[in-house]
Amino acid sequence: MNVGDHRVELRSKAIGMLEGGITQKEITTRLNVGVRSVRRWWSQHKCGETMETKPRSEWPQILKRLSRIVIKKSLWKKRQSTRKLSRRLSIRGNPISHMTIQRHLGQRIDARPYKRPKWPKVTQKTSKSIEIRSGS
Predict the structure, then answer these.
(1) Is residue 24 part of a domain?
(2) What is the pLDDT of residue 1?
(3) CA geometry: angle at 119 spanning 132 and 79, to 5°?
(4) What's the chain's Rg over C-alpha atoms?
(5) How many structural domains is the chain composed of?
(6) pTM
(7) Which range of residues forms the domain containing residue 20?
(8) Residue 117 belongs to some domain of the structure
(9) Contacting residues for 86 by C-beta, under 8 A, at least 6 apart
(10) pLDDT-based confidence at 5, cuts 50/70/90?
(11) Residue 37 domain-assigned?
(12) Is residue 81 part of a domain?
């Protein structure tokens, strides 16, 4: 469980057990929670704070639902760069940078950029050696 995911009932139960004289270590094994969580709840209780989960501040989402769908569909199109995609979405009224699109593709969809394989340069010298090998 993530931090703050424990129910208020569980927190209250832990506080009641602590007030009843049960040790923190026993509470962690009985309720299957972390020691640090129990300590934090106890200190909050002693300070008079509530057991409610505090609201978290989050960054507003830049990518709207429609944009995420467009980005996902663009994976199947050939030669669709993130810069072109960013321009296309900006024209539709949803300005997004190409880096945001790259981050979304890498983190959320787990897509990696296509890299063309490197081939050696063909010069006159190498082309003659290729002709000689293929001719014999």
Answers:
(1) yes
(2) 45
(3) 135
(4) 29
(5) 2
(6) 0.42
(7) 8-47
(8) no
(9) 96, 97, 98, 100, 101
(10) low
(11) yes
(12) yes
The token pair at 108 is: 């959320």
- Ramachandran angles phi, psi of 76, nearest 5°: -90, -5
Query: How deeply is 13 buried, as exposed, middle or buried, from its count of CB atoms within 10 A (0-12, 13-18, 19+)?
Result: middle
Nearest one of 3, 48, 43 to 24, comparing CA atoms: 43
Q: What digits encode the pLDDT tens for the residues 8-57?
A: 889 889 999 999 999 999 999 999 999 998 998 999 888 888 878 777 77
Nearest to 54 by CA among 14, 3, 10, 13: 3
Q: Give the whole-angstrom CA distance, residue 132 versus residue 126.
A: 10
SS3 per-residue string spanning 73-113: HHCCCCCCCHHHHHHHHHHCCCCCCHHHHHHHHHHCCCCCC
Is the CB of residue 11 less than 8 Å from the CB of residue 41? yes
